[in-house]
Amino acid sequence: MGPSAAVAACRNAVRADLRDLVGTDSPLVLVAASGGADSLALLDATCFVAPRMGIGVGAVTVDHGLQPGSAERARLVAAHAAGAGAAPISVVHVEVDGRGGPEAAARRARYDALDAAARAAGADAVLLAHTRDDQAETVLLGLARGSGARSLSGMAAATGIYRRPLLSLPRSTLAEAADVCGLRPWDDPHNRDPAYSRARVRHHVLPVLEDELGPGVAAALARTADLLRDDADALDEWAEREALHLVDEADGQVRVDAVGVSGLPRAVRTRVLRRAALRAGTPASDLTAGHVRALDAFVVGDSRRMTLDLPGSRRARRVGGRLLVAPG
Fold it and tell me: What does the pLDDT read at residue 303?
């Protein structure tokens, strides 16, 4: 007998995702394994599929140190990875500083650790076990924050070295695959803690939407993310082309051809202006949609202000047909 439908779905998704690495020089992928059902299902699927494709499989587990016994759980995850045939295996203990809130701080520490593990191992890719349900939650969180198309497009299937081969599969499929394989996942209590916004969306908001609107809401939100990502990618590419001849740098300041930019559609124009502010040294984490709207007002001539202060001690001003952004 072959594998169950759930196990086959996981293996097929991983196989399709890794196909481009076949035939490259000693390819190696790392699986980010937390010990939950999703990541264990991904780990087992990858350890089955990748070696048959000539691809090495390692694993990395990150101990955030936020709960009693977390170090022991990380050790058990590493032991499971070794039993599945993964090598090399890294157990990384991190400190979560709390800046930007607990969720953002933990995420930042985790990705820093994964980046370092990938560099140390010389990995071609790091596989993450995000599911279609995670995608739906991300879209809802972006919608609640009033984010734009880029945020509402959710998580990409691939970003840099990071890949999400199971992003099209529902969480239930991964749970079933883990169960069929006899895995013993750890249920992180933080995933049910209402102090975390994602936990509230997962256990309260999405179930209500499913009850009131019918099944399939998570799948519909994930499809919406795919469509918006296509739109956002196209607009970003357009803005990048326009910025090549409308934005330059001289005398320590970034200069924008305000006349040329003003003739662009607003969705493209604001992207060009955001790029200009970032090029001038404004921190991306601090540059808000409000700042970009204010820059846009300078360009289209609706603002009477002479200057605009931006994060990172940068200042924008309109001089004739140019918008200048420089250190304040």
Answer: 55
